[in-house]
Amino acid sequence: MPLSVRLSIFYGSLCIFGGINMPFFPVWLESKGLDAHDIALVLAATMFLRIVAGPVFAFAADRWENRRGVAILLSWLSLASVSLFLLTDTFWAIFLVSALLMSLWPSVTPLVESIAMRATREQGVDYGRVRLWCSITFVLAATGGGWLLEWNPASIIIFCMIGAIAIGAAGAHLLVKERPAAKRLRRPGGQFRISLALARHPLFLVGLLTASLVQATHAVYYAFGTLNWQQLGYGENLIGILWAVGVVAEIILFAFSARVLRRFSAPSLLIIGAGAAILRWTLTAFDPPLWGLFGLQVLHAATFCAAHLGAMHFVASAAPGSLAATAQSLYGALSSGVVMGAATLIAGPLYQAYGGQAYLLSAALGLLGLVGALWLASRWNGGVLIEDTGDTEEAGETEAGSNDYRDYPERTRLGC
pTM for this structure? Predict the structure, then answer.
């Protein structure tokens, strides 16, 4: 099976969970008696846990040169964890199960992103066209979840989440088996030192923080978008369609990402995403009419997709290949953990006090992201920031061998 098809299938299986969890998990939490402050606390706490969990798993995967194996293990542990929601009713039980699940399942993403970005560089796989299958299944799951919620109690959400992770765990087995490179003769602590050097590099930090700020502009939307639309009188089916419109726009941009990347650098894409976030969330804060809301949802192509492409290509270009998963996990820890978690914590009381005007927080984060993106564009030359030269290798095997795709020699692209 071609490498591009394997990656496409796994991305598709990976994001079914997000299509259910992101729009509708807050609805299930509310059905369990949690208020806006409690919901924000649960969501933010799970994000902060990614600060530790993601980098630890990714560091181990890089060290063992077995990103696929770690992804499979995390997937099946996630399935066991999400099933525990069937036994939870109290706030603290929900909090603990959420913390366990969201320490495991999101840690899969940096591993597959590192595999996909290396396949992009070494085999010519079009990243956007394999990643768009994640968006396609997300929109199908969000639309289907909205339809199911129209006719079923909120408890259906947990059964959908369990099914989604089961599909993702099965899909993980399609990831490419990595051939081990010749053993690297690392000095004690060598991998940790080079990882720390990368994490402390000023330009790397600015790039990660900038991308994280742009993604954090979605904090209010992810946590309270569905609840806010319910308060405005929109039904669950229409809400699912609104989520879907944003992701369809995202899919279209992913489909043409190769052309986009030929014209725009990673910092330029971050600038586009930040500017669009300022516009999108400022207007959303003032409850636009339904036709205007559909138009603003189209901007998701810029606020999420353009910024995501910029972040992925920045991380892949700025970090050495031997730290591919570690670098992606550092971005995930800062983006989905520190910055998104802090924004979600702030969003809770803001939404409780001001309703939809809490989206002004998102616009402010977009402004900060725009400043960072402009600074990055003026300072980064597009190259690797830290060279991994601290080790010697046996048998002349190069770093590229740490993720060997020789079983998939074609420079393949999906014709979709």
Answer: 0.76
Radius of gyration for the alpha carbons in the chain, expressed in angstroms and rounded: 20
Alpha helices by DSSP H, 105-218: 108-123, 127-151, 156-172, 190-200, 202-216
Kind and range of the H or E run holding 184: strand 184-185
> 146-150, long-range: CB within 8 Å, 24+ apart, which pairs?
146/23, 146/24, 146/236, 146/237, 146/238, 146/239, 146/240, 146/241, 146/243, 147/236, 147/237, 147/240, 149/24, 149/27, 149/236, 149/240, 150/235, 150/236, 150/237
In degrees and rounded to multiples of 5, residue 392 shows phi and psi of -110, 165
Whole-number pLDDT of residue 236: 78
Place of tokens 């992804």: 71
Burial class (CB in 10 A: 0-12, 13-18, 19+), 49: buried
Q: Which of 110, 70, 95, 85 is nearest to 20 (CA)?
A: 85
CB atoms within 10 A of CB 379: 12
What are 291-348's pLDDT values in tens digits?
999 999 999 999 999 999 999 999 988 988 777 778 888 888 888 778 998 998 899 8
Which tokens is 160 given? 């959908």
- Over residues 231-235, the mean pLDDT reads 91
Structure tokens at 253: 């941009």
Note the residue count of the chain: 416
Q: Quote the CA–CA distance of 9 and 269 in Å, as a whole number.
A: 26
**Cβ(245)–Cβ(297) below 8 Å:** yes
How is residue 25 written in tokens?
């998990």
Strand partners, 393: 184
